[in-house]
Amino acid sequence: MNAAAMFAFLGRRRSALLLLLLLLLFVTLTAASHSQSRPPDYAEALAKSLLYFEAQRSGHLPHNQRVAWRDHSGLNDGLEQGVDLVGGYYDAGDNVKFGLPMAFTITMLSWGVIEYGQQIAGAGELAHALGAIKWGTDYFIKAHTHPNVLWAQVGDGDTDHYCWQRPEDMTTSRQAYKVDEDNPGSDIASETAAAMAAASIVFRETNPHYSHLLLHHARQLFEFGDRRRGKYDASVAAAKGYYPSVSGYGDELLWAALWLYKATDDADYLAYAVDNAASLGGITWAIAEFSWDVKFAGVQTLASILLMEDGAKHEPHRRILEQYRSKAEHYLCSCLNKNNGTNVRRTPGGLLYVRKWNNMQYVSSAAFLLSVYSDHLRAADQTLGCSNGERVGPEELLRLAKWQVDYILGDNPHGTSYLVGYGDKYPLRVHHRGASIAPYRKSKGFIGCTQGYDNWFGRRGPNPNVVVGALVGGPDDMDRFRDERKNFMQTEACTYNTATLVGALARLSSLELDDIDDEGVDSSDLSSRASI
């Protein structure tokens, strides 16, 4: 080989080596982007998640309101119908008060405090959690104007979605809709009963009079929902296109009965859940999701906990309660990818994936149920059985809950936190009317119905207001996410997304290594997350 050929050969080797080094650098940087730059601060995320509910408040805001870009709104709600329906929460990025998801939000916030109140208090957030719950239950007391009347919705989704306005400027319909003797709504009546019963437990020690009042309403609503059966969206047509009761009302009736049992220790409520377990679907439906509409996994988890907490007390009902437990563990095993049949899909980055519209609601609710079930298994020194024959310890459930929450907080292929306001990188163009328009307190000039679309909705820049603590819909099945205001399936947040996350964050804020360490599994391994 002559000198020229040798130099050419060495040049090619040098180029190949340089290319290899660049490729290794790219892989390293890509892997680094999949992990957080710092360990997750669950207490910080918890505080921000509770702040979100103040951004969603309707009504006359209190003097200690922390979200300063919001102001009073909906002050005439119910006026046309002769009732006071001021207050409550807007469900998402619009200005409608939908009763069914609002009630589920309060039920789940209450459950989070019941399970993890000590951790929430330790983070200095108990007063904010109780305030978020009471803002909802105060509204439900107003909305329950008669034993057999519940006001189910304020506002109309069609006219509301036609406009892009701050809630402080609303010119859309504020028509109120109710369920009553002639227009039943067993699902919304029972979910509201569940919310008030769960909240009564929360306030039992700190505000016993209020707790008793909530129980009084809860009992009446459950009786009404059970006696006059029917789906609320058949009575309230305005809800059908937005929050239809696809699962029916059986899950809500069982859900309310179990919450009333927990709140009162009245054996009649437990007997109801046992006697109606088959006819209302509690022990027949094996479900792989838990949401504002489909409550069966929550019902089954509550029933399972009864046996774990006090098997002797519930021995007369063991046969049915074990059937509830079997279905609860089907749900949990589907999240763990350990069922022989139906399992919840995973994205390549390991995120549980149910459907493309607002998938994060299913992730946060799964993280909560996994956390709760893990703790009760541990306390009872028990394991979970999956249909593939595996026995699963509590640490594996909690580890999956942690992985899902960590993904939400930024440990994902994009390095993006899907909890708005948390971390260095999060969605800036949340699909939210109030957040996307100049704050009312600084710019009180009226913004009309279509003016918001013309001047604000289409802007490419970030929202002028940050909806701190909002959990957006999140990425698609390939971990892809477009931070665009018009991309409502991914960038809109809902109260029930964050409500279930609160409890999971509280649990993880007191996490110890032994809680999740089992068989040396590396919790930072994304490939494990996508398969385990």
From TrEMBL:
A molecular function GO annotation: cellulase activity
Glycoside hydrolase family domain span: 42-505
Record's keyword terms, sorted: Carbohydrate metabolism, Cellulose degradation, Glycosidase, Hydrolase, Polysaccharide degradation, Signal
Pfam families named in the record: Glyco_hydro_9
PROSITE patterns for this protein: GH9_2 (PS00592)
Keyword Nucleotide-binding: no
Keyword Signal: yes
Signal sequence residues: 1-32
Catalytic residues (positions): H431
GO terms of biological process kind: cellulose catabolic process
EC number: 3.2.1.4
Reactions catalysed: Endohydrolysis of (1->4)-beta-D-glucosidic linkages in cellulose, lichenin and cereal beta-D-glucans
Highest rank taxon of the organism: Eukaryota
Family from the record: Belongs to the glycosyl hydrolase 9 (cellulase E) family.
Name of the protein described by the UniProt record: Endoglucanase
